[in-house]
Amino acid sequence: MTPSGARGTARPAPTAPHLSVAVVGGGPGGLYAAALLKRLDPSRNITVWERNAPHDTFGFGVVLSDETLGGIEHADPEVYTALKAEFVRWDDIDIVHRNTRHTSGGHGFAALGRRRLLEILHHRCRSLGVELRFRAEAPDPARLAETHDLVVAADGVHSSTRTAFADVFRPHITAHRCRYIWLAADFPFDAFRFEIAETEHGVMQLHGYPFSADASTVIVEMREEVWRAAGFDELDEAESVERCAKIFADALGGRPLRSNNSAWTTFRTVVNERWSHGNVVLLGDAAHTAHFSIGSGTKLAVEDALALAACLSEQPTLTDALDAYETERRPVVASTQRAARASLEWFENLALYLRQPPRQFAFNLLTRSRRVTHDNLRLRDARFTEAVERGFGCPPGTPPMFTPFRLRGLTLRNRVVVSPMDMYSAADGLPGDFHLVHLGARALGGAGLVMTEMVCVSPEGRITPGCAGLWSGRQAEAWRRITDFVHTRAPGTAIGVQLGHSGRKGSTKLMWEGMDEPLDEGNWPLVAASPLPYRPGSRTPRELSRAQLTDLREQFTAAAVRAARAGFDLLELHCAHGYLLSGFLSPLTNRRTDAYGGSLEKRLRFPLEVFDAVRAVWPEDRPMTVRISATDWAEGGTTAQDAVAIARAFADHGADAIDVSTGQVVADEEPEFGRSYQTPFADRVRNEARVPVIAVGAISSWDDVNSLILAGRTDLCALARPHLYDPHWTLHAAAEQGYEGPGVVWPPQYRAGSRPPRTGRTDAPKPRLTLSDLPLAETPAPGA
């Protein structure tokens, strides 16, 4: 049955007299939506259905941000006043790791009991005339849609409304790796507390925070395999509660825990492609979930309610209102879910960080979601942040990004890398004036290491006719001109070459003429691990024979010899992005049945043979790195665990660092774009394979660079687009942080530009009075 007012039909917004609203679910989001809708239009008939009793609730305490509270205060001062009277507030976060506690202050939290929150909202709804039906199953969603003008589905993560219209909402539900249980302790923690327990069964963690003057929420979490190894799968509720209290006796001061029909569960991330269908709209956990470790579930639901009520008042039709609600909320929710996913995965992979020094571990935990960064943590608690910097080895006044890093015989003066960026501007593989200016400008811009684009080892190894090469002595001489400029004009900056072969992605047009599209004429033969075209319409490569593999290996070594003579300080082997060597590594692109295909060990064989051959001719004191795609963003492709194994294999063969990128291996990939979206892969490689890494992928701010390095998630950060926008990105990062040490040096010709120019007058007197400051009797009359 289809709800009335299907999308495309402009129904009046429910503001006319006697229009009816059904709210399914009596949690905070549903109740607050009901109260707001009734307050904004008392003529609305609003009914809330809640299957449980009034005081039944999951969990114990609720944390709300100042931002959310400000929205509540503005929309409904009465609810805000009631909440404000109940809040407990605190500023500190305690992290306890290996019997060491570190405290970071200045964070600002407000919490109250979930039951008390519901009581306040029950009272507000009743006072406004909302009908509350407890212990009552809501009618069938399609029936509600027929008998009401608006149906608000606030029925939680297991939403029956969402299920009823799953073909329209198209939900994606992801279960995660940890088990957790909500409990309570009858005393208040004096901070938000994270405590790590390393047991014989594996690592477990406690998340705890106060929600009243005499009680705290306690969440115990661990990976599924740890939960089973510890025998929790065989314990009843009371036994689980007692066991958790014993494991975290130090945090609890030996006091017991209590439950409230608590059960071990697995967090599920809910994402819906659409949030409304006709006159039915999803709200809160029915529409989206965010992991409890960033405390955003109730916050998001309350903010949904505020936005929905506002849009219904502002828009002329119900369809417009629901469209506006989703348009407003979706990007906010998506951002929160990205942060929550990062936090969730950090705790899932907690064991990777146990060896970190306790203070760095604490910083890593605090910045896990990427919402708290080095810079704003320094503003909140400068003392704590400076202590972390000292432990890391930062000289006084030196941001982490400007600390040196050594790779074999090369010491980089800072941690910034200009990422390889194809310029498609060479003629017959010969780099020219454009490359000199492009790479020279970025070297003058202060980065510790400047990388060339992928430099091809043969004419047939080019991606496009405009790709640079190193298959001839003339090309080596042209590159020597560039390396000499960097070493002479930007002393202290290193320049690296990235060697590669296009494989099946070659013989295509320049990027701005048609990315990945085959040339109209002048094509050259393509070769690859297997005869698979990159995408429909692409040319099919030939599968490489044993003899051709030998020839290719010799092309790489010959190019490496030329690169050494050209004066490059570092060589990177390109094994990513679906190019030739990457094509051997991925199971999606390597279908061989010989010694170079099948298992990961066999798929690694040829890339390792090339690496070994290049390492043998590359000068011993100069470092070699390898760029890999840590995931193909496609089912059946390279996994994060594969990436760790690949990185470890190259490190065992002598790679000095792994440049961790992702994707571009298959055309039908589905990457999860977002700020710093590839850095978790670098983090995992670094901390599981125990090899230095270069992180790359939508890292755009110096604050992110400092955060990632100080947390121990990467050793170097490679930035591409920021260096296209600003060739002097690193110099400007130093200026903005007030740093003038040896980690970055302004060329003397540019020194006068080391401070930003003024853009307008800033000394105008500030107004001292406004009309609103005057007593009412003194306010001038209109037109006076």
From TrEMBL:
Residues 745-784 are annotated as: Disordered. Residues 20-337 form the FAD-binding domain. Pfam families: FAD_binding_3, Oxidored_FMN. SUPFAM superfamilies: FAD/NAD(P)-binding domain (SSF51905), FMN-linked oxidoreductases (SSF51395). Residues 401-734 form the NADH:flavin oxidoreductase/NADH oxidase N-terminal domain. This is Bifunctional salicylyl-CoA 5-hydroxylase/oxidoreductase. The lineage of its organism: Bacteria, Bacillati, Actinomycetota, Actinomycetes, Kitasatosporales.
